[in-house]
Amino acid sequence: MAARLQAVLRRSRHDLFVPLAFALSQRIEQVAWGDLADDPGLGAFALKSAQKVFLADGVINWADSWLEAESVGLACKRDAEGRVAVAPAPLEAAPDTRAILQSHPVQCAIDIATSLCQQAGDQGLVFGYLTGPATVRRRLFGPVPRDARTATDAGGNIAMALARAYCEAGVSALLLAEEEPVADVAVIEALNPMFNLADYYGAAVIYVSRQPLPAAAAAALTGLGARIAGAQDAEHEIIALPIGEASVEECAAKWRSRTVGGKPRLVVSSWDIPADAAPEDVIALAKTIKEI
Questions:
Q1: Are 125 and 47 in contact (CB under 8 A)?
Q2: If you average pLDDT over residues 38-63, what whole number do you get?
Q3: Is the N end or the C end of the chain the one with fewer CB atoms within 10 Å?
Q4: CA angle 23-28-32, nearest 5°?
């Protein structure tokens, strides 16, 4: 596990709880999607406040699998909660990576990460959100891209640019969130430069998947140095719990069943905790994990 996150784990006396709680944070802090997307300061405040409520040891700056697609100019029509109901028409050519970094959605995500890192200091944990490569390719170029190589390379270039911005902001880890199935391992292999960059900055790369992960994809991720949530590595384990989708008792039982000789572990949610989840359940689970 990359140096910065590993150092925090070594200092910890208990497992570290860093759930992906973007939608739930919006609800409990009563922040509408439109307001959050337009005001990074408000977004950072809502996430930091929710982190304290949930007794979390860290915070993740974003959770939206259409972030990169909207940033290349695709017309993503959203509802009041920020969900994209209808997929926009796909791109026909590779987007300008520099323009993506200057787009409002990506700049908002970066600004939120920067603000959270400044508040956290050297001891806190802030993870920078990126959409998984298979999902990015499908969002930008559709289920069957006209030019698979162009689509794959574009995903790698976008991830590299966004990861660099996050690492320069000071995140301790990058969170790759994959919503679509990985049908082509090439999309993962295209992330090699991004993994090299993360290693240079000492930032871990954590991968969570909404879909079952094929063995070839898991092997490619592991080979690049990713830490797959729910799998074990030689140093520390990252436990993924279905928070908000299973009961507190079920999540706690899964947490208790994963033991690795008493070493502190990182506990994350399997996916963004649903907005209608009960905050008190998240708090109860946090107290169990931290033995409060």
A1: no
A2: 96
A3: C
A4: 60
Provide the pairing of β-strand 173-178 with 125-131: parallel
What separation in angstroms does the CA of 272 have from each of 58, 100, 108, 277?
A: 14, 24, 19, 11
Output the CA torsion sign for 104, 180, 157, 215: positive
Contact 175, 166 (CB under 8 A): no
C-alpha–C-alpha distance, residues 222 and 217, integer Å: 9
Tokens found for residue 20:
């992906």
Distances (CA, A) of 292 to 13, 238, 285, 289: 12, 20, 10, 8
Please provide the DSSP assignment of 183-242 as one string: --THHHHTTHHHHHHHHHHT-EEEEEESSPPPHHHHHHHHHHT-EETTSB-SS-BEEEE-
CA angle, corner 139, sides to 192 and 203, nearest 5? Answer: 35
Q: Report the predicted TM-score, pTM, of the whole model to 2 decimal places.
A: 0.95
Q: Where are the domains of the chain?
A: 3-289
Which pair of tokens denotes residue 199?
């290693």
Closest CA to 20 of 67, 62, 81: 62
Q: SS3 for 16?
A: strand
How do residues 139-155 score in pLDDT, each as one tens digit?
A: 999 999 999 999 999 99
Nearest Cα neighbor of 150 from 111, 92, 109, 205 is 92
Of the candidates 238, 129, 132, the one whose C-alpha atom is nearest the C-alpha of residue 185 is 132
The CATH architecture assigned to 3-289 reads: Alpha-Beta Barrel (3.20)
